[in-house]
């Protein structure tokens, strides 16, 4: 279903409702979702992408919809309007679930982009109360002789072969959970089932929904298709490999020959031009985070960096987020990046880089060999020289990969902070060198 010209009006109406205390009266004829667990399902052509959520309206003025993916829980504020409709803004993602409670108690609606002028797809969905399974009802599982637990080498194909992925899967009986890691980040937590010689996994936590549907071959290898709610399908094939690894994320993006420093001048959310040469950053260790609010790995990285910065900002360290958004407009970026700032309590500068495009980002940051992924995180020492560039981000669901990342992050930042400030820089810029944890 194509998004029509009413999309802007829907976006504005939703933003207005979310920003006000207006709330529909629970008068005669009013219908609200039942509290508890629900099973939803997107249907795109012949592809079905199920998802689970909880609806909680104990606080009638501020109901919450919680998307469930394995152990992951993502909360979203619900705005009711009219007698039977709800609007669920996807937090920092400029999209929403817009739905109606039917007379039989079911919910029907669409997942809509709210980006002004965006001509994409609205994804229809429906949901039923009281169903807590994702793909297969309890008692209807088919026996399987396979166990997919372990590490997998995945090759993903679009128009051409893409960089290899690594999947970490865990199977208990028929239940299957896991995560797929790539050079740009991870898939977030996947949840699904193994049935006979087939398996299926899905995820929906705010950005576009996704499903991995595959077949287990006689030799133990797997083949299948990844379907996303808004983007094209891609094929994959994989084999179990305990030694499977991704390319080193610290070597994918680097400075071009002849460069030691990063240089940019970009507007903050008030339109003020900000540069690394500003006095605020002189003599400081600086973390530069290149992100977009539309990017789930970016928001996961921000959820890590924002509290880390609050705990370490007095140690002579600064941070800058450069956001590349879905519309090349500062006023729009002020809204989207401002939402991100409020959501995660960001206390460092946020700049607007332009439209969300890797070529544009590469042009704005010409010292880099290329902009390969959102997010990309750059560490700059007290002399203003780039010391480290990390491509992508793998979150907590990746287990040891995330733990190793955090350990290296703290070690490297502690070492950079402990280095002496250049001559002529005041001691106030150095800060305390107490180690972070």
TrEMBL record:
Protein name: Thioredoxin domain-containing protein
Domain of life: Bacteria
Ranges for domain Thioredoxin: 255-411
Position of the signal peptide: 1-24
PANTHER family: PROTEIN DIPZ (PTHR42852:SF13), THIOL:DISULFIDE INTERCHANGE PROTEIN DSBE (PTHR42852)
InterPro entries in UniProt: AhpC/TSA, Thioredoxin-like_sf, Thioredoxin_domain, Thioredoxin_ResA/DsbE_sf
Transmembrane segments annotated in the record for this chain: none
Entry keywords, A to Z: Signal
